[in-house]
Design a protein that fits this description.
The protein is mainly alpha-helical and 101 residues long. Helix content is 60%, strand content 10%. Strands 1-2 form a two-stranded antiparallel ribbon.
Length: 101
């Protein structure tokens, strides 16, 4: 099974290298008026991909923080609960922002 995983990884790397070699031509990126940058297409695509990953992670952080707070609150409530008492269900957040966006 490990050999199959390594073969798949090698195949992905080879496809990426082939993609980079085939897209090495220079492209112009127009910024503000009068600004023009030239860079290889594969570099521009890599920068845009990395920027998208970073923006996605930054959008995900508030949800993770909120979930960790809720987990901590539930753990404290469970630790304080005695066997004879029932634990109250968690309260719904007061905001309408359910997905963190």
């Amino acid at each position: 099974m490990q050999a199959l995983v390594w073969i798949l990884r090698l195949f992905i790397v080879l496809v990426l290298v082939w993609f980079a070699v085939k897209n090495a031509q220079q492209v112009e990126i127009n910024g503000l008026p009068g600004q023009v940058w030239q860079a290889p297409l594969v570099f521009v695509l890599l920068v845009v991909f990395v920027a998208g990953v970073i923006i996605g992670l930054l959008a995900w952080i508030p949800t993770v923080v909120r979930q960790r707070r809720e987990i901590g609150r539930l753990k404290r409530a469970a630790a304080l609960a005695t066997p004879g008492n029932a634990v109250l269900p968690p309260q719904e957040p007061s905001g309408t922002d359910v997905h963190g966006i």
